[in-house]
Amino acid sequence: MADAAEIQGPSASPARRRLRRAGALLAGAPLLAGLLQLTAAEPAQAAPADSVSVALDTMTPSAPTQDDTLTVSGTVINNGKQPVTGAHVGLRVGPLLNTRSAVDGIAQHPNDLRGGTGDELGGKYTEKFSKLVPGVAEHFSISVPVDELNLGKDGVYSFGVSVSGKTSARPWDQMLGIERTFLPWQSSEADTKSRTTFMWPLISSVHMTARTGAGERQTPVFQDDELAKEIAPGGRLAQMMDLGRDLDVTWVIDPDLLAAVDAMANGYRVQQPDGTSKAGSRENQDIAKQWLAGLQKAVTGKEVVALPFADPDIASLAHTGTSVTGSLSHLKDATDVAALTVKTVLHVTPTTDFAWPVEGAVDPSIIKVATSAGADRVIARSDSLRESAGLSYTPSAARPIGGGTTAVVADARMSTAFEGDLTRADSSTLAVQQFLAQSLEANVQKDEQRSIVVAPQRTPTASQAQAMATAVKALQDGNWSQPDTLTGAANAKPDPDATTRIPSTSAYPSSLRKRELPRSAFEQIADTQDKLDNFQVILTDQSRVVTPFGRAINRGMSTSWRGQAAKADGFRADVLSYLDNLGGQVKLIDKSETKLSGRSATIPVTVQNNLVQPVGHLYLRLSSTQPTRLKIGGKAYDEQPVEVSGGHSQSVKFTTSANANGRATVLAQLYTEDGQEYGDPVSFDVKVTEVTPTVMLVIGGGVLLLVLAGFRMYTQRKRAAARQAEEEGPDEAEADSGDDSGNPDDAGDRLSEEARSPAGAAGPDQPGDPAPDTAPESADPSGTGERVDR
């Protein structure tokens, strides 16, 4: 019974507990509502509905020194529905930031009123507005001597531009908006300066196709005319070239870009939607020449790093391409041609031992592929090769990772500072200040000199490039950094405490993996290479196809295809289609049924070459599918070498022999010297009509009739001669007999008789010989019932 009571007791407890909880909730509802109102009121007070947005458009100098005057300008906009009265814009110097993470926090929330905004400078260093009308932008500009900012020790300070005022709903002075940024402060030359390498990428998307003109110049065909826009004055690449000219940077160049601009400068064509092409404009040719001339001057005396041709996607190759035979060889080809291209176009010798995976993300397979083509330095990024030892400072970029390979680790914070939309002046200004703040913050972490590498996005926009140039210029003029080359950073003494552990393949970012080239892309490239190998062996001038198609294969695995899967597939398909079209210009002409009368004859097969160059190293094989009935050259098949001039056809004759009447199928196929089939085979039937005994009997009867006719003529002549002799008498007969050998008339009679006799018909054109079976040779397809030479 006791046990039963203990069991039953708890069964009623949950119901009682639910009642007690419901009562407590009802009793505490008013208190909860009050708490919710207070919680909701906090952000309302921090960012009221009557807020005013502040845009900091300029801040000069970006890194001021002791004797400078700081000038900030921008705009304020009243976003509320009520006018703001008694408004003014002021400057606020916040606290000294001690970590790079603190810089990140402000950069992520630049308009947060709850942050450490610091005290307003006030006084004459404000700009006042009697009224801010809703939706109307008002411009401001404030200048203040740096010594009035009361800055303390060197470092990075939080800096804000705020707007304060009153509204009818809140008739007291309050801060209604702020834009927070950074004020790098290095009052004098730092005792230890960072060595900063800024990579200046000159990379574009794929523009050239595999197609070229048929003439000697092989005029290249472009997909579109977009490259002309990029290198034209004001274009993205034109600005990259102009801005980089005056900066201490390392130029990182895709040789394919140089090849494309150089091709444009020497005359090019543009592909049209209907498959044709039109000549590029003379104006664009001049633009290309000017851009190349300017770039040659810009890189003089600077380090130039050449990426493999067309900037192959190393990560895609490592993750999906290595399973396809031959894929790695294309990376080696792209690396080998890179130096030659840069040297030919820019007249400088580039460095080619750097590999740059997308966004500096690495894993063991990427490192292996990158170094397979000869690159012993891989540009990684610190958000991929993360520090695991809990260092309190940013180590130098160089990391020995084994096997004689060095990972050059770019700083992720500084490298990504110029991403996003920087077309607005305030966005650009904030990016510059954030970059400088991170640079100075990294320098003050440690007294020892370190090498910092900045690897920005591969194809920055014009506005991003302008912000980058502003930041680099300010850094060069600053007191805490000095420029360095990429090679210098790679050769710098590595930090023994820095991590050298390459992240696993599973740690590779999924966002990047989703945009990689699929395995099918490398299979398509392999198919193209196989067909190119088969095609080039028959050519007398292989360079006409090896060079344009080899470079097109490199372009098919370019990093620029990321995020453009459909366009990438279309490009590779067009390369393969064009190659098939060229290969199909050398082919066999179709034949219809051929008739063979007799036991032996020759069969002609025509090879047509519509290319502009001669072809050779080919063999034509003619095979009988029924060798018991029809043999080719005395066996089942025969083959002969083939050489055909450009734009011509050539007939190849095969001797055949028939063993029986009927129809036999014959197969003609071209082969390369290494035994590979070339092109499509041609199949046709041969109808054998053997000579029968009846025909021989008829022919024999005809010959017998001729012999009998000749004998009859002979006997008639003898009888006529005998009658004449009887009529003339013995004396005349004796006279005739004595003069017979010397009578010219008699000799003429004999020659005449011999000419009329069957024996006189012997010679090269005997009446018994049949006429030739074939007409003059032609490259056109054979007609129905074609006969062959015997």
Q: In a nutshell, what does this entry contain?
A:
With 790 residues, this protein is an alpha/beta fold.
Please render the helix and strand layout as text:
Layout: H1 2-46, E1 52-60, E2 69-78, E3 84-97, H2 100-108, E4 119-120, E5 126-132, E6 137-145, E7 155-166, E8 174-185, E9 194-202, E10 208-212, E11 220-222, H3 226-231, H4 236-244, E12 250-253, H5 255-265, E13 269-271, E14 277-279, H6 282-298, E15 304-306, H7 314-321, H8 327-346, E16 354-355, H9 364-372, E17 377-381, E18 398-402, E19 405-410, H10 412-415, H11 425-443, E20 451-454, H12 462-477, E21 481-483, H13 486-491, H14 510-513, H15 519-536, H16 543-555, H17 565-583, E22 586-588, E23 594-597, E24 600-609, E25 615-624, E26 630-632, E27 637-644, E28 648-658, E29 662-672, E30 677-689, H18 693-728, H19 730-739, H20 744-756, E31 786-787
Helix pairs in contact: 2-11, 4-6, 4-12, 5-6, 5-8, 7-9, 8-16, 11-12, 15-16, 15-17
Biased composition (Low complexity): 758-776
Keywords: Membrane, Signal, Transmembrane, Transmembrane helix
Pfam families: DUF6049
